[in-house]
């Protein structure tokens, strides 16, 4: 792992809804909250179907009043983390990690383009406010399915003015990604967080623009795909093992619970460390990662066990690389 997490006790101080299905949680740690850098997150210990697990949530705000704030979207197709968080009431005891940052904002660029989709607003929100407070040149595009889903939009509009552009799917509004990227300064950077479809579209347009790949920074939340999650079967002939992956657990979690050891790190489909070889598939692989390219996904030779799934059947894999 890239980080050795330091855990501490905390208390849920308050909750409030900031959108129809997004709730803001104010969490007061035992030791004074550390002001988080933009893009930071904390891990929260959760209980799902009686088993202990963890979930990562981006931090909102600067924690100046001693509380960390996270926004959690209630997902009908959740693996259980959001349902657990939404079951909590003020006063609940929690275990949380210190802030960590895998999505660092680089300061000093001549221009910034920020793109958020849905709950992907959580890390982008802090970046936008940090850049605005420094007088940086920026433009922010924020999309949601419904206008009521645009959490924090009023706050952002007050701080950013016409530098914020919102897009609502149900109203037929769509981002012009090509134009937005073309308008970015040649040495500018793009920061992105949102559902897999938006992320793939932005990454594709960025490649087509010929811009340096290191100037596109993104964070995924690894739970969106082209299909609704359903149970599927994983076969590993080398280990003479067959495992069923429930619809509310990841393939990686199910393999580990069955004693199949895999290397892993991000658990969000970004690092590729948990990728396994696909020997055969009955049905279709729903590639939910941002590690493999479109071409590699089309070849269907490998899949990221932490986020990708199968619909309509089963997959036969090998967990050991021999090349």
From TrEMBL:
Protein name: Oxidoreductase
Domain FAD-binding FR-type, chain residue ranges per copy: 5-106
Single GO molecular function: oxidoreductase activity
SUPFAM superfamilies: 2Fe-2S ferredoxin-like (SSF54292), Ferredoxin reductase-like, C-terminal NADP-linked domain (SSF52343), Riboflavin synthase domain-like (SSF63380)
A matching Pfam family: Fer2
Domain of life: Bacteria
Domain 2Fe-2S ferredoxin-type per the UniProt entry, residue ranges: 232-323
């Amino acid at each position: 792992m890239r980080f050795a997490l330091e855990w501490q006790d905390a208390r849920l101080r308050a909750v409030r809804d900031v959108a129809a299905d997004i709730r803001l949680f104010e969490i007061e740690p035992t030791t004074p909250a550390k002001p988080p850098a933009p893009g930071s997150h904390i891990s929260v210990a959760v209980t799902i179907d009686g088993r202990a697990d963890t979930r990562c949530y981006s931090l909102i705000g600067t924690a100046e009043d001693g509380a960390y704030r996270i926004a959690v979207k209630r997902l009908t197709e959740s693996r259980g983390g959001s349902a657990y968080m939404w079951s909590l009431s003020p006063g609940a005891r929690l275990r949380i990690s210190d802030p960590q940052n895998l999505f660092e904002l680089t300061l000093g660029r001549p221009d910034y383009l920020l793109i958020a989709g849905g709950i992907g607003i959580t890390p982008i929100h802090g970046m936008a406010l940090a850049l605005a407070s420094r007088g940086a040149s920026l433009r922010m595009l924020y999309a949601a399915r419904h206008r009521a889903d645009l959490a924090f939009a009023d706050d952002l509009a007050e701080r950013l003015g016409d530098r914020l552009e919102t897009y609502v799917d149900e109203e037929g509004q769509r981002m012009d990604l090509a134009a937005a990227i073309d308008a970015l300064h040649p040495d500018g950077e793009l920061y992105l967080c949102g559902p897999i479809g938006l992320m793939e579209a932005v990454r594709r347009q960025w490649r087509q623009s010929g811009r340096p790949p290191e100037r596109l920074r993104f964070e995924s939340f690894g739970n969106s795909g082209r299909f609704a999650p359903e149970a599927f079967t994983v076969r590993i002939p080398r280990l003479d093992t067959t495992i069923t992956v429930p619809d509310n657990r990841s393939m990686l979690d199910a393999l580990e619970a069955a004693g199949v050891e895999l290397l892993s790190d991000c658990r969000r489909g970004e690092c590729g460390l948990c990728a396994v070889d696909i020997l055969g598939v009955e049905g279709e692989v729903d590639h939910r990662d941002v590690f493999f390219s479109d071409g590699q996904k089309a070849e269907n030779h490998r899949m990221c066990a932490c986020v990708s799934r199968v619909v309509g059947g089963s997959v036969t894999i090998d967990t050991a690389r021999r090349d």
